[in-house]
Amino acid sequence: MSARGPDTAAARGELAGQTVVVVGGSAGIGLETARRVRESGGEVILAARNAERLKRAADELNPLSTSAFDAQDTERLERFVRELPGQVDHMLVTAGSPSYMPLDEIDLADAGREFGVRVAMTLAVARASREKVRAGGTLLFIGGTGGRRPAPGMAVTGALTAALPALTANLALEIAPVRVNLIAAGFVDTPLSASLLGDRLQARRDQLRDTLPIGRVVGPADVAALALHLMLNDALTGATYDIDGGQQLVGL
């Protein structure tokens, strides 16, 4: 295993001649996946909300094109997919973040909007992808595992955690032969995790490093390696793939 994670696709150039769209491709899992695609011979199209970060990613990766917009604007997201020039091979959507809202603090309109927007984002990408992703290509969505354990403040996130696998399975039937899969990640050491945890980040890293069966913290490269595997293995569709270093096994 290299320092960047367990992946040999880059060395073999297995994505040569293929184009991968990464929504949320300016940081974290999306950026690392885009790097892996380029290393394995593929081309990338990047979309992200933050124009400054997107430019830095573009300077590094030389994508075919970039587009700066908020993927939670589902009409804009669907238009972006429909306006892609020609067909692409795979699409990864990492946009969105978990929401932890104790019941007494929940604004019902905000909670309904958050749940609905995340589902609508998935549906928008899937609907537009029927014409833009080649047969046998992949739609990949990023979800999580944390909401599987009931806890105060996890109602909305837990509902989404349960909904996304069912949505993925149904879409895999509706838009076949395009393949649809979901990556359910536990804690991943990304800028998003840092922004959510603030000064508690290092303590969380230490706790996981000391407790997880793998003896280390899961990083973006680990998730990127799984994403490339799901793109390359055309027998996989309609399923959810956990990647958490054993976090669920030890109840963290």
Give the strand tally: 7
Task: Please describe the biggest sheet, giving its number of strands, its sense, and whether it closes into a barrel.
Answer: 7 strands, parallel
Mean pLDDT: 90
Bulk shape:
globular
Ranges where pLDDT stays below 50 over 5 or more residues in a row are 1-6
Across the major sheet, the strand order is 3-2-1-4-5-6-7
Distance separating the two termini:
25 Å
* Class computed from helices, strands and strand pairing: alpha/beta
Q: Order of SSEs, N→C?
A: HEHEHEHEHEHEHHHE
Task: Characterize the structure shown.
- The chain is α/β, with parallel strands linked by helices and 252 residues long.
- 44% of the residues lie in helices and 17% in strands.
- The protein contains 9 helices and 7 strands, in the order αβαβαβαβαβαβαααβ.
- It has helices at 9-12, 28-39, 51-61, 74-82, 108-132, 155-174, 191-197, 201-211, 220-232, and strands at residues 19-23, 43-48, 65-68, 88-93, 133-144, 179-185, 240-243.
- It has a 7-stranded parallel sheet with strand order 3-2-1-4-5-6-7, sandwiched between helices.
- Strand 2, helix 3 and strand 3 form a beta-alpha-beta unit.
- The longest helix is centred in the middle third of the chain and has 25 residues, at 108-132.
- The two termini are 25 Å apart.
- Residues 1-6 have low confidence and may be disordered.
Task: Describe the structure in brief.
The chain has helices spanning 9-12, 28-39, 51-61, 74-82, 108-132, 155-174, 191-197, 201-211, 220-232, and strands spanning 19-23, 43-48, 65-68, 88-93, 133-144, 179-185, 240-243. It is of the alpha/beta class and 252 residues long.
